[in-house]
Specification:
Helix 2 (15-35) packs antiparallel against helix 5 (73-88) and helix 14 runs parallel beside helix 17 (377-388). This protein has helices at 3-12, 15-35, 46-57, 67-70, 73-88, 90-100, 107-116, 125-155, 157-172, 191-205, 208-216, 225-249, 262-274, 291-303, 316-330, 345-370, 377-388, 403-418, 420-427; strands at residues 336-338, 341-343. It is 64% helix and 1% strand. It is an all-alpha fold. A hairpin with a 2-residue loop joins strand 1 (336-338) and strand 2 (341-343).
Length: 445
């Protein structure tokens, strides 16, 4: 067998390939179930069903039919299950089940689990799996109980419980699916809904590695470099986005300016500042916002949350390392230094590759979807960035896409959930050069 054939076989069964196949399989299964008569009230095509399933498994939240009115209770339960599986990962549940049964997880399965959780090693994967499940179910249970205090008086016990549970699952997994046609706009001034939902997706967006580190150390000085970068970076992004959103939209009568009190405006500013990374809920209409606010939101959607989290995007740590590398270049430093630690060339190369590949994928996706789309360009750019960051926020363009446009958005959501580097590692081949060449000079900038 030739070296090329061996390479193809190795790629075909590599962990990223297996991971992609698992997610694709669940999207197809979910679409088939959602297309069944018992899952919808009529009018939901297979195209609608596969788009919904893809959006749920990739925990994006973009929709082409209304989740609350077009799908039955069974259909909504299926969507919630797909969100949970897509957010926490199928391999996470499989690993937990195998360990509960006392079965050993083989190395190939550990490698797939490693890629799904965004880890570089396999030594502590099962510990992380238990933390993922424990944190997720505990947070969702507490949030459901809190949200019931709002939804039960309004909808009754049965429907109020389901509303609370569905939104808790959707929020923790950064999915952005809502059973209300206007997302959470009806609760723009409700502090319980606003704070509970945002705490859920901020918590899960930090990443389970950070949560495990916080549980183990509980002191800032003993936290790992990754945890310090995620916590400090998340805080800076949230506070700056909160202030900027309030500043840009305070007098806009279609958004903050239309609210009754300053307290409601501050609360709405908070929600819209944190939801683009990458929760997908909204309490204001993004189509009515200033262009400057939309551009800020685009940037937040592309950044996303943290590695090994339910969020998408290029990740907060990537943005920080990219900024540090730029600063180091101007200071003529060969290594990056932060929090008493240094980062080597391999981390910088990975960040540069991820950023370049992400920009390339967004541009290609924008180009392809624009071929058959006749609407506003900014609206389309917003949808593409939302799909890539698995955010789910929309300015209305998704519902106007034809079948080709839908297929492109599905593909972008799929790549965004797996991660551009996972795709790149699947396609790449690691080789050692047989010949070395003298260094050359290239003039840049």
């Amino acid at each position: 067998m030739s070296g090329l054939q061996l390479s193809i076989r190795r790629k075909r069964f590599s962990p990223p390939a297996v991971l992609a196949a698992i997610y694709a399989t669940f999207i197809l299964i979910g679409a088939i179930v959602l297309r069944m008569p018992f899952s919808h009230y009529g009018g939901v095509t297979f195209s609608d069903a596969i788009f919904t399933a893809a959006s749920a498994v990739t925990v994006t939240g973009l929709i082409v039919v209304d989740t609350g009115s077009d799908y039955t209770l069974i259909g909504q339960i299926v969507i919630a299950i797909l969100i949970q599986i897509g957010g926490l990962g199928l391999m996470t549940f499989a690993a937990l089940l195998l360990t509960m049964l006392g079965l050993t997880i083989a190395m190939p399965q550990r490698l797939v689990l490693r890629d799904e959780l965004g880890q570089t090693g396999v030594s502590e994967l099962l510990v992380l799996v238990r933390i993922v499940i424990l944190v997720a179910f505990t947070a969702e249970a507490i949030a459901t109980a809190v949200l019931m205090s709002v939804f039960v008086p309004e909808f009754g016990w049965a429907q109020g419980f389901w509303q609370a549970l569905f939104h808790a699952i959707s929020a923790f997994n950064n999915a952005g699916f809502s059973l209300f046609s206007d997302s959470l706009m009806g609760y723009v001034a409700d502090p319980v809904v606003n704070i509970t939902i945002t705490l859920l997706f901020i918590l899960s967006g930090l990443g389970f590695v950070v949560l495990a580190d916080l549980n183990r150390q509980r002191r800032w000085s003993k936290l790992t470099l990754h945890s310090k970068l995620m916590l400090s970076g998340t805080l800076v992004l949230i506070l700056s986005a909160w202030a900027l959103f309030a500043l840009l939209e305070w007098r806009n009568p279609a958004t903050l300016g239309g609210l009754d009190s300053d307290g409601a405006r501050i609360l709405a500013s908070w929600f819209q500042a944190v939801t683009p990374r990458t929760a997908g809920f909204n309490t204001l209409d993004y189509a009515q916002m200033q262009d400057s606010t939309t551009i800020m939101t685009l940037a937040l959607m592309l950044v996303g949350g943290g590695p090994s989290s339910t969020a998408g995007g290029i990740k907060v740590t990537t943005l920080i390392v990219l900024a540090l590398a730029t600063l180091a270049f101007f200071r003529r430093q060969e290594r990056l230094h932060i929090f008493g630690r240094s980062l080597g060339l391999s981390e910088i190369m990975k960040v540069l590759a991820l950023t370049a590949l992400s920009i390339f994928l967004v541009l290609i996706g924008l180009f392809l979807t624009s071929i058959t789309y006749d609407g506003d360009f900014l609206d389309l750019l917003f949808e593409v960035c939302s799909a890539f960051g698995t955010v789910g926020l929309s300015r209305g363009a998704t519902g106007e896409l034809d079948e080709f446009g839908r297929a492109m958005i599905i593909l972008i959501m799929f790549v965004g959930r797996l991660g551009p580097l996972t795709l790149a590692f699947f396609l790449a081949t690691k080789t050692k050069p047989k010949i070395t060449y003298p260094e050359g000079k290239v003039f840049l900038g």
